[in-house]
Amino acid sequence: TPLHPTQTRADQLMSIILSDLTKPFGDNLVVNRVSLEIQNGELFVLLGGSGSGKSTILRMIAGLTPVDEGRIELDGRDVTFLSPQARGTGFVFQNYSIFRHMTVSENIEFGLRIRKSPLAKRRERSDELLELVGLAGLGARYPDQLSGGQRQRVALARALAYQPTVLLLDEPFGALDVKIRVQLRESLKEIQRQLRVTTILVTHDQEEAFELADRIGVIERGSLIEVGDSEELYHRPKTEFVATFIGGGNVLVGRAQEGQIRLGATSLPFPPGAPVHDEGAPVRILFRPETVVLQDKPFKSRGDVRALAEGRAIQRVFAGSQQRIRLEVDGLQGVRPVAPPPVYGQRLTHVEALQPASAEGDDLQVDQTLRIGIRDYHVLNPTGLKVLICTDDSPGGEAALAFGARLSEAAAGPTTLLTVIERGEELNAARDALEVLRRRHFPNLGQQVDTRVRQGSSAHEILMEAQDGHHEVVVIGRQEGNFSPGSSGLGSTARQVLNLAAVPVLLVKDPRTRIDRILICTAVGEPGKADVRFGGRLARRTGAAATVLHVRRPQSMPREVKSVERHLQQAQRSLEALRVKSEIKIKENLPPLVGILNEAESGDYDLIVIGAPASRNFQQVRWTDLATQIVAGTSRPVLIVPLVE
Fold first, then answer.
1. Helix (H) or strand (E) holding 237
2. What is the largest CA-CA distance in the chain?
3. What angle in degrees, to the nearest 10, is found between the helix axes of 395-411 and 427-441?
4. Which single residue of 110, 253, 458, 459 has CA 20 to 30 Å from 452?
């Protein structure tokens, strides 16, 4: 039954449900397992950049693009394979798509005419909609007698003419100037509120999304990253992508340290409700430019502003009532800047601030040194382990890929799949091969898996990628070989990476089919804490049980025995705090190598974690150290964690 424009659909149960919607174009996955529910009468905005897949989703809902996988439900009906005409959707395109040989009224009535609606009802509906969209009295005009904004109003009225259950808008204001866009947004919002028609609008314009949306879905590379209302996504995003994509923001990566967020020389408390972070884990904080406070005097120890650092203003941009200040900050050493993104060769962290502009001309000046404080900040959800998997066509490379894929999926973190080539002409073939491997080994990780091809020396390029990408673990294959002086059986690439990497290196010879049991081999004291912490993170991410092993040397003194026991008890408490199922074991009167290898075999562990001295010089490494002896003595994956000495 047709509704009057001022009636509502409150009595109709209506929603849009998308389930695992998938659409590849060739090897490119344009829409990647998108699942979403949109409530009755909601105006939902899909926000994303060009090529993100948002328009493809809209066309799939309308039936204009076929669905390869997944399901679409409209108003409780499965319409996945129905024709566009059978779905009850209205579609408004960016380029108007109205018939130039028809009058405005004829355009609006077109859908009703092909549905055999009586002439009187068509005319009545057309007049109602002309009034609704602000074109009353213009029904006899032709499209070339209208402005761009008026033609888009005609397109909207035509889409609403036959009472669609769903209205789909594909960047409808993109071709219009700013003033007209603002006017049409206001009109659309009012019309949608009156009709209560469930609406999806896709746009790349954040201001448009904020103004119109009841809720926003942010989409990137075919995947739905995050959904929320405007304020939630702006002030309290969960992901790094949304934090940097929506609005201007400062995102810095510090560390969790004794219940605080360590940012260089500054410590900030975790705000109430912040997600839990492991000790020593990266912590990403977001603070918007308008929350930055700048002054030339130190901040008071109490108040609503937290002191961050001291910086030098390097850029000032006047923007009417406000000025945007960029500062270079020298007091954030060790802090990784995410946004503003650092440029090549940039040494110091940059922070952006938004301040009121003064009509008296006493604005902040370039080169002025200022104290930086923040009124409010938000902690993003911790990401999974950031993994770099190095692969080639050798047995070791294939083993690294297979085990690394299991680790990445369990750890639910961003992953980079890397291969290194010698010659530039191999580039396209290498990229194609990596894409095949990505789709085969990572079918469920979507946008979390990136592929990279680098040219040059394998060890050097792996180390550079690990550093540039801020990866937390490097997975690399090891070759067949026997341990002997001067040879670890690792292969030259793995040996060099192991020597020079500042992050844990996972060496794989034979991949395991599971990651259920982890053996953490620990030394006593501060250096031994690193392998327990990192092994605990892996166990927590993968759901594995952990055994902390210490092999006590013969004739240990009583004082040493107590120290070992205390260290292991602390290790177990640390693992329990991470909610990791754990046990401790002590083997006595055995050489450490024998004790560790015996336990690894008898317990059938899937992964061995061992610490090794950090910042080692390649020329000075002795391949008789315990870590490399363990690698040479087992076919099981071994994770070598740089220890702090």
1. none
2. 104
3. 50
4. 253
Helix (H, G, I), strand (E, B) or coil at 245: helix
Strand partners, 507: 476, 638
The single residue listed with the structure tokens 């995102």 is 251
Q: What pLDDT score does 614 carry?
A: 46
Q: Which of 537, 503, 511, 512 is nearest to 612 (CA)?
A: 503
Question: Which residues of the chain are under the pLDDT cut of 50?
Answer: 1-14, 344, 481-487, 614-624, 644-645
User: Which residue, 601, 588, 587, 589, is CA-closest to 630?
Assistant: 601
Per-residue tokens: 193: 């509120």
State the Rg of the chain over Cα: 30
Q: What is the pLDDT of residue 72?
A: 95
Query: Vertex 318, ends 316 and 323: CA angle to 5°?
Result: 70
DSSP assignment letter at 29: E
pLDDT at 6: 39
> What order do you get walking across the sheet with 28-38 strand by strand?
28-38, 16-25, 69-74, 77-78
Residue 219: how many other CB atoms lie within 10 Å = 26
Using CA atoms, how far apart are residues 579 and 544, in angstroms rounded to an integer? 11
pTM of the model: 0.62
Instruction: Give me the residues paired with residue 638 across strands.
Output: 507, 608
Q: What is the DSSP string of 97-128?
A: ---TTS-HHHHHHHHHHHTT--HHHHHHHHHH
* Residue 563 CB coordination number (10 Å): 14
Which class for 498: exposed (0-12), middle (13-18), buried (19 or more C-beta within 10 A)?
buried
Q: Using an 8 Å Cβ cutoff, are 506 and 639 in contact? A: yes
